[in-house]
Design a protein that fits this description.
heterodimer; A: 184 residues; alpha+beta; Alpha-Beta Plaits; two-stranded antiparallel sheet; 24% strand; B: 395 residues; mainly alpha; binds iron/sulfur cluster
Chain lengths: 184, 395
């Protein structure tokens, strides 16, 4: 069997800004309720067009699990590492809280966790993946904005979505090659 | 035997009126140290996050800036020491002891800042050995600055070792301190220069700028200290050294102006994303006062003007210009660390979690950060002027 290659494909047109994903993530991962402690967010993009033709997009996002992850490059102790399938994770016991990764992440996906006394971020719910379950934010979304899957499996839903629609990734100019794709 | 050695190392100056000039600074250092230690206790009991002003958006603040300020000044001093030792610049070699002691203590003062900035400084010590990531510039920062500390330590030993001085060995270590110092500082520039996410940091500018401004800082600090310990009456035999330091500092400031000009012009010209916002934060944004008064006025224009006006000859005026430069340079260090992080990584729209004012995030150092800053200054003032008082630093 070939190695898995994780990806999340998001269709922002389906997003209602209900923020169920942010709540699910907090509960699933015990993320404290503090201003700066969040792994996932939903940005309300500015209103475009003129009345009566108005449009607003909501852009849910989180750590992009970059293939070329600057946070991992600058981490002096290898606390930040990437699994074979492509989840970028932090080993809390190795983090010295130098915060270089926070400065280096172009997506502001990381924060200092008081709980772990280390830098924390989206883990792709790796503990759930190991049990064969989907990430909490994916599972909870009422309109199925997010689809999680394996890009090495040509029959997976993520492969089908990316093969059948245009997609973009955030900040392509940074060459981080995110594993999160947005379909249009 | 031991007693004799001690006596030769600690030559207490009984009849030197110049000692009087050291005392106020030792006291000042002690006050700073007390403030700093209270700060340390607050950090230990309440935790970094509770008492520091740095945030998710601006993770590096005052302590990183002060760390840079001190360690870069130290390597600037080591550079000047190396010129004296290894390259035969007699004018600098004459101040050898003072330079090495100053460089060593300034470096230690800098280490207090990084020690209190890191959430797990002790973890760092063993993880740098057990699981170093050699692609990370911070690992090299640790390696080079530790090497610099050891080299300066050996220099200290060689200088104060009783008996004959081994000129060859001193020259070798002087050269090493110069070389490793330059590498350490330019690599510190790369800690910032490697960050693709922050366009204002990214590139070769800071590796170059930090080295140049650091050498000028070394010269400036020596101008100040020589004036202080002599009560603004520098001995005749050091006059040519002072003039040489004045020239070095003036030259450094000249190169800094040149670097600044192109950095700022290229940062705003055609508004490159991320870079122009940071540059404009300095030129006309929330950091404009710091920039124009501190960076430009105090670190560039005034000291250069003073050097030119006294034609680089009056030691007291050179000392004053050194002092003004050192004050201004603090703004320079603070501004570059902070300004580079002010453009947010995503716009501060509703729901994004990012809070912006006029498109920029914000940072103000907390009182405890200032206390840790005081710790660094305390270590510097207290131990350096103690050394001036109890060791013979005249070469
Ligand atoms: S989004 Fe940020 S934290 Fe996540 S992998 Fe990329 S650089 Fe690292
Ligand atoms: S803060 Fe922790 S995870 Fe981030 S770079 Fe430093 S050691 Fe690595
Ligand atoms: S994958 Fe898991 S950790 Fe990551 S944002 Fe979703 S719920 Fe949170």
């Amino acid at each position: 069997m070939s190695q898995q290659r994780y990806a999340i494909v998001l269709d922002t047109r389906k997003c209602l800004n209900c923020k169920a994903c942010t709540v699910a993530c907090k509960f699933e991962n015990d993320v404290p309720v503090e201003d700066e402690a969040y792994r996932i967010w939903v940005t309300e993009m500015p209103l475009t067009g003129r009345f009566p033709y108005l449009h607003q997009e909501f852009q849910p996002s989180q750590c992009q699990h970059c293939e070329n992850a600057p946070c991992e490059k600058v981490c002096p102790t290898r606390a930040t590492f990437t699994t074979e399938a492509g989840a970028v994770l932090v080993d809390y016991d190795k983090c010295i809280l130098c915060k270089a990764c926070m400065v280096a992440c172009p997506y502001d996906a990381r924060f200092v966790s008081l709980e772990h006394k280390a830098v924390e971020k989206c883990t792709l719910c790796i503990h759930r993946l190991q049990e064969g379950r989907e990430p909490a934010c994916v599972e909870t979304c009422p309109t199925k904005v997010r689809v999680f899957g394996d890009l090495n499996d040509p029959k997976s839903e993520v492969s089908r979505l990316l093969g059948s629609s245009n997609s973009y990734r955030l900040k392509p100019e940074k060459n981080t090659r995110p594993r999160l794709y947005y379909v249009t | 035997m031991f007693r004799e050695q001690l006596q030769s190392v600690y030559q207490i100056h009984k009849n030197h009126s110049r000692d009087v000039h050291n005392l106020p600074f030792i006291w000042l250092g002690a006050v700073f140290l007390v403030l700093g230690l209270i700060g340390v206790l607050l950090v230990l009991f309440k935790g970094h996050e509770a008492v520091y002003g740095v945030s998710r958006e601006v993770p590096w603040g005052l302590l990183i800036a002060t760390y840079a300020y001190l360690v870069i000044t130290s390597t600037g001093l080591a550079f000047i020491g190396g010129l004296g030792h290894a390259f035969g610049f007699e004018k600098f070699a004459k101040m050898n002891k003072r330079i090495v002691v100053l460089a060593f203590i300034t470096l230690l003062a800098g280490f207090t800042q990084i020690g209190m900035e890191l959430g797990h400084p002790f973890r760092l010590m063993y993880l740098f050995l057990l699981s170093p990531h050699f692609q990370a510039p911070i690992v090299w920062m640790g390696i080079f600055y530790s090497m610099e500390l050891v080299i300066l330590g050996v220099e200290l030993y060689l200088i104060f070792r009783p008996g004959k001085t081994n000129r060859q060995l001193t020259a070798v270590f002087g050269f090493l301190a110069l070389l490793v110092g330059v590498i350490a500082t330019s690599n510190l520039g790369f800690v910032f220069g490697s960050i693709n996410a922050r366009p204002f940091y990214h590139g070769i500018y800071f590796p170059v700028f930090l080295v140049v401004s650091g050498i000028a800082a070394g010269a400036a600090l020596l101008l100040v200290i020589n004036n202080i310990v002599s009560g603004f009456k520098v001995r005749e035999e050091l006059q040519d050294s002072m003039q040489a330091l004045g020239k070095l500092m003036g030259l450094g400031i000249g190169v800094m102006i040149f670097l600044y000009a192109w950095k700022l012009i290229s940062s705003v010209y055609s508004e490159p994303e991320g870079m122009s916002q940071a540059a404009l934060a300095l030129i006309s944004g929330p950091m404009a006062l710091h920039f124009w008064i501190g960076e430009v006025g105090l670190a560039l224009v005034l000291p250069l003007l003073l050097i030119v006006l006294c034609r680089g000859r009056n030691s007291a005026i050179l000392g004053l210009s050194g002092l003004i430069y050192m004050l201004g340079l603090f703004f320079t260090r603070y501004d570059f660390v902070v300004a580079g992080q002010l453009p947010p990584m995503r716009p501060g729209f509703e729901g994004s979690g990012v809070d912006t004012v006029k498109g920029l995030v914000h940072y103000t150092p907390s009182p405890v950060e200032w206390m840790i800053f005081a710790l660094g200054l305390g270590v510097f003032f207290f131990f350096y002027f103690l050394a001036e008082r109890y060791l013979d630093l005249q070469t």
